[in-house]
Write a structure and sequence with these properties.
62% of the residues lie in helices and 1% in strands. By secondary structure, the chain is mostly helical. Among the domains are: 117-229, no CATH class; 238-497, no CATH class. The protein has a two-stranded antiparallel sheet. β1 and β2 form a beta hairpin. α1 packs across α20 (515-524), α13 (363-382) crosses α14 (398-414) and α16 runs antiparallel to α17. The longest helix has 25 residues, at 174-198. It starts with 5 loop residues before the first helix and ends with a helix. Mean pLDDT is 93; it is low at 1-26.
Length: 548
């Protein structure tokens, strides 16, 4: 058996136990102070969300001042826990707690979405990005009988939520307000449709939906009356951005380093794209699927190709529970859930950038989502370790999750799975160039050098195909990256960080390096920052020492 660090082997066993693939190893007794850490973590998670009274989360100035005081006290308490003699996996847990405490502290010191971002008060859970506690899934009729009363309660809370929001938004920003107006218009349409469809059979529910719609319309009117007078930029500032990357995301690259890396990666991607297009000059591009049935057929074939390849080539452990999902359909963006828009294959078909790629050949995006996101999601659900098994707050795991998923897109190309599929190779390079092209817009948004419209112009003009200024993916991406610092860079820069770890591990092990063992050990650490995975896999803590 090739050499693997003791810490890495133990972590791998722990994850495989949760997967049902091995027997549970004997767990060493926690070191002195570790139970204090887990207790502190539990207390922190209990105060990380605001109090909710009658369906209304309390983001008032007084409540937020009290929450900030509590997290500052917990940071001081954490400093008193001495982890210096703990084994590395336990010290990794310490860093996760520290990063999350800092994350909430950063929310209070810098981001302050309850005061700066009107879109934070999303009463429906439409899409990614920071949003208030208690946001409901976008409701639609018919409503199941066992969900009716709870839904009426949530709808009745909407007017009070938006009334509180107007009082809390003392530092709103123009770009964020304009994005919120778009989001709230979708919510207004969702509530209007619900009221219309339930008016006959359930007048009480219909009235609650109508009241929510009216309150949302009033909130939109208020935003429209003030947005032009608000400060334009919504970013956190370059110095704050660097601090967040290093001390919350535990990410080793700075704003300036990523600017340089992203430009180089964009140039690399465009060069390989043009070489590939030259090699297959005259080859017509695959036409997109025109029906849901054809879409599902292509996606299912790609899923089976990828899993079969990974198993045959020993790329990583592919457990029995990882199977292609059935009837998933194309991903519907929040903006496309507007009731006034048709379904994904209703004429005229509106394809955003990713659908332009996936509807033609889905291999790259299925690698991203099947052994990427779906595997991570299912593996994470099987992880029972304290602290590490919890869903990370503040997107701390973003570069790990998105970096791994994006790494797989290029992996299947470089490993040869697409050798007989030239159009799929071209599509993969188009996707890669787009991922590189969106790093600079996030950086410039948060350094407050670009407005949202300027960032949008950069992304859409540098993406080589299938993206115009109204593309819903382009608009969704930049809204998310402005509202959640550090998320958009996680795809490409997370991949860069993963590749740096692979290179370091290969140098460390020499001829004993094994790709499958590397991937399995990487997964064994769980959904945590790559800098912490590096510490466990290599035993080298220099990167973390700078982040402490």
């Amino acid at each position: 058996m090739k050499f693997r660090s003791i810490c890495g082997a133990l972590a791998l066993q722990l994850v495989l136990v949760g997967s049902g693939l091995t027997q549970e190893p004997a767990s060493p007794a926690p070191p002195p102070g570790y139970e204090e850490l887990t207790g502190l973590f539990d207390r922190f998670r209990a105060i990380a969300e605001p109090q909710i009274v009658n369906g209304v989360p309390d983001y008032s100035a007084a409540a937020m001042t009290d929450q900030h005081a509590q997290v500052r006290a917990m940071l001081a308490e954490l400093e008193q826990i001495d982890d210096s003699a703990w084994p590395i996996p336990r010290r990794v847990d310490y860093m996760l707690v520290l990063a999350e405490l800092r994350g909430l502290d950063f929310q209070h010191r810098v981001v302050r979405p309850w005061a700066r971002d009107p879109g934070f008060y999303s009463t429906t859970n439409l899409g990614f990005g920071p949003k208030m506690a208690g946001a409901m899934p976008a409701p639609s009729a018919p409503v199941p009988a066992d969900e009716r009363n709870a839904l009426i309660g949530k709808l009745n809370a909407v007017p009070a939520i938006l009334a509180q929001a107007r009082g809390n938004l003392t530092d709103a920003r123009g770009d964020l307000a304009r994005l919120a107006i778009q989001q709230k218009n979708i919510e207004q349409n969702v509530y209007a449709e619900l009221a219309r469809k339930t008016a006959q059979d359930d007048p009480e529910l219909a009235q609650a939906a109508e009241n929510a719609r009216a309150a949302t319309a009033e909130f939109i009117a208020w935003l429209e009356s003030v947005e032009a007078s608000l400060p334009a930029y919504g970013g956190v500032g370059r110095e704050n951005y660097d601090w967040y990357l290093k001390h919350v995301l535990l990410f080793p690259y700075s704003w300036e380093e990523m600017r340089i890396l992203a430009q180089r990666e964009y140039e690399r991607s465009m060069t390989f794209l043009k070489i590939e297009e030259h090699e297959h000059k005259g080859l017509p591009m695959i036409e997109p699927a025109e029906t849901l049935e054809e879409f599902e057929r292509r996606r299912n074939a790609a899923d089976h190709d990828i899993l079969e390849y990974f198993r045959e080539k020993d790329v990583m452990t592919v457990p029995d529970w990882l199977e292609p999902p059935v009837g998933e359909g194309p991903y519907v963006l929040p903006g496309d859930r507007d009731p006034e828009k048709g379904g994904p294959f209703e004429a005229p078909i509106r394809r955003h950038f990713f659908r332009q790629a996936e509807d033609r050949n889905p291999h790259a995006l299925r690698a991203h989502n099947l052994p990427g996101h779906l595997f991570d999601q299912m593996m994470g659900a099987r992880d029972k370790r304290p602290i590490r098994s919890a869903d990370r707050l503040y997107f701390i795991d973003g570069p790990r999750i998105e970096g791994w998923a994006f790494y797989l897109e290029e992996f299947i190309l470089q490993a040869g799975l697409l050798d007989s599929r030239p159009n799929a190779r071209i599509i993969t390079y188009i996707l890669q160039a787009k991922r590189a092209a969106r790093v600079l817009p996030e950086l410039k948004l948060h350094s407050n050098e670009w407005t949202y419209d300027e960032a949008l112009a950069s992304l859409t003009t540098r993406t080589p195909k299938w993206m115009g200024p109204q593309d819903s993916i382009a608009r969704f991406d930049l809204e998310l990256y402005l509202r959640q610092p550090g998320y958009g860079i996680g795809y490409y820069m997370g991949k860069v960080h993963l590749e740096a770890l692979l290179s370091e591990r290969a140098q460390q092990l020499g001829d004993d390096f094994d790709l499958k063992e590397f991937h399995d050990a990487f997964h064994a650490s769980g959904l945590i920052p790559i800098s912490l995975i590096r510490w466990e896999m290599t035993g080298r803590g220099d990167e973390i020492a700078e982040m402490r």
